From TrEMBL:
GO terms for biological process: autophagosome assembly; regulation of autophagy. Its cofactor is Mg(2+). Belongs to the protein kinase superfamily. Ser/Thr protein kinase family. CDPK subfamily. Its EC number is 2.7.11.1. Transmembrane segments: none annotated. This is non-specific serine/threonine protein kinase. Pfam families: Pkinase. InterPro entries: Atg1-like, Kinase-like_dom_sf, Prot_kinase_dom, Protein_kinase_ATP_BS. Keywords: ATP-binding, Calcium, Kinase, Metal-binding, Nucleotide-binding, Repeat, Serine/threonine-protein kinase, Transferase. SMART domains: S_TKc (SM00220). It comes from the Eukaryota.
Length: 529
């Protein structure tokens, strides 16, 4: 057994990786999770088979370009180059490790709220600003080449990138990249400029909002024909603001001379960055005070003559805002719980290895997802009743719409988790649990059932955390346990009247030398509630 373990471990200078920890695989090599021996820093190590590229000068040049480009870039939204090693058979590129995979993990199984998409694109715009400054065009932008590390998105994979001396004017003619995200000029083998990356960003934005690409085809030829003949459509089934439609219309302009400039793209998302929307995968906004109704383009109802208006007293108005702020704090906590649920489902195998055969963590995933979904529905009902009581529904229609969308996403996550467990053959065993028959099967949970499930979730989080902390050493496991405990702690604090909760500090996890000690301290805090 020890010999097998040693055979799977490879060492490169001050770095090592285990071939069992495969992160991804491409046409020319594989990417493994590794570490730096002197600091225990986690890294990604791309292993490229030399025989696959040595016979092709184009591929050799592409690899050299990738290394040249990555060396000169130092930006939080661009994957950082660390080192390179050559052996007789392989080339190894060491880069920054991104714990949460790529953008496909964020997109998988759910439509993403526009506010969250915009926050992701604020980060992408910041990264591309650095590329533009360095006169670099990516040319192969797609969800698989946008990484996610603890809510920070990073542009990666510069294998097809090109340094363009005259960034604004250079015309390129080579056909590289992934067809679905290619600008029409590249598909038609016409000259194109650096605006091809803007088109790719537009396709990704559309796909995140609507869950599908704006144009598809059975092959490259039919895709090209559909792009050129079919207009850009905005499906009515998903709401999209004028900002989102405006960006897509300008980014997906088929005639390149009419497509938006980079300066316009940067300006759009720099202004959007200051709107303070709730985020799941970036630094969460800690402010939850809603002292003004959210603006709308036109009133939904015509105001009554002044003599007929019901004048609310200041005390009544204050009471309304106080209750609304309380509901909005609950909403932020439920959104945070939804984020934690997503993290949990993405790390099932990481936690399951520390269990025996009880499947307690898998059941926790189901219970927490259903609890979150039903909590959203209860909150939505309470909020609508509040607006109806104070006749304020029209003023807060945008707030209601966003709450409904968030509730729908939580419901979809629960259904997707059920389908996943069914697909991998675990659902039949989970059905044997008393918790499953009592809380998972059937319709929505009542208030008393929600209280019972909340208690079970807390007990399971404590039990699983204690068990895992005895032997775990991985930073991503520690971070997940931290999120799970915070999910229970913040819920308990709010129910006990504590409104002084900054979700931005909770979300911004900083690794320390004694993470286990901190988590054990937090575990004791959870016991006290």
């Amino acid at each position: 057994m020890q010999q097998q373990l040693e055979q799977s471990v490879r060492r490169l200078g001050d770095y090592q990786f285990d071939t069992k920890y495969l992160l991804g695989e491409g046409a020319f090599g594989k990417v493994y999770r590794g570490s730096k021996l002197t600091t225990n820093q986690e890294v990604a190590i791309k292993k490229i088979d030399s025989s696959m590229i040595n016979k092709d000068q184009y591929l050799i040049d592409a690899l050299n370009f990738e290394i040249q480009i990555m060396k000169q870039l130092d930006h939080p939204n661009i994957v950082k180059f660390i080192d390179k090693f050559n052996t007789d058979r392989s080339i190894y590129i060491v880069t920054e490790y991104c714990a949460d995979g790529d953008l496909r993990n964020i997109m998988k199984g759910r439509r993403i709220p526009e506010s969250e998409v915009n926050q992701i694109f604020c980060q992408l715009a910041s990264g591309f600003k650095e590329l533009v400054k360095a006169n670099i065009i990516h040319r192969d932008l797609k969800p698989a080449n946008i990484m996610n590390h603890r809510g920070v998105v990073k542009i990666a994979d510069f294998g097809f990138a090109k340094i363009v001396d005259n960034f604004s004017g250079d015309l390129l003619r080579t056909c590289v990249g992934s067809p679905l995200y290619m600008a029409p000029q590249i598909l038609k083998r016409e000259k194109y400029t650096t605006k091809s990356d803007i088109w790719s960003l537009g396709v990704i934005y559309y796909e995140m909002i609507y869950g599908m690409a704006p144009w598809t085809g059975v092959d490259e030829k039919s895709l090209t024909m559909n792009v050129m003949k079919q207009p850009l459509r905005f499906p009515a089934s998903t709401q999209l603001s004028d900002f989102g439609k405006g960006f897509l219309s300008r980014a997906l302009e088929k005639e390149e001379s009419k497509r938006m400039e980079w300066a316009e793209l940067f300006a759009m998302f720099e202004s959007e960055q200051n709107l303070g929307a709730i985020q799941f995968n970036a630094n969460m906004n800690g402010s939850y005070i809603l002292d003004q109704p959210q603006p709308q383009s036109q009133p939904l109802v015509q105001p009554q003559p002044l003599s007929q208006q019901i004048q609310q007293s200041d005390a009544s108005s204050q009471k309304f805002l106080c209750q609304l702020n309380n509901y909005n704090l609950q909403r932020m906590q439920i959104n945070f719980s939804h984020f934690v649920n997503v993290e949990m489902t993405q790390h099932i195998s990481s936690i399951a290895q520390y269990q025996k055969k009880e499947m307690h963590f898998e059941m926790l995933c189901l219970l927490s997802a259903k609890f979150t979904s039903n909590s959203f529905k209860l909150l939505q009902s309470n909020v609508l009743a509040l607006f109806e009581q104070y006749k304020r529904t029209a003023e807060y229609i945008r707030f209601i719409s966003q709450l409904q969308q968030e509730s729908q996403l939580a419901s979809e996550l629960f259904q997707n988790t059920m389908q996943y467990f069914d697909r991998i053959g675990l659902l039949s065993n989970l059905r044997l649990s008393a918790d499953f028959s009592q809380f998972i099967e059937g319709g929505d949970l009542g208030l008393n059932q929600l209280i019972s499930v909340e208690k079970i979730i807390k007990e399971r989080v404590i039990s699983i955390s204690k068990q895992v902390l005895q032997s775990a050493k991985e930073n991503d496991v520690f971070s997940l346990l931290d999120y799970m405990m915070e999910m229970c702690l913040t819920r308990s604090k709010i129910m006990n009247g504590n409104t002084n909760i900054d979700f931005s500090l909770i979300h911004e996890k900083k690794q320390t030398s004694d993470q286990q000690g901190q988590l054990n301290f937090k575990l004791n805090e959870l016991y006290s509630y």
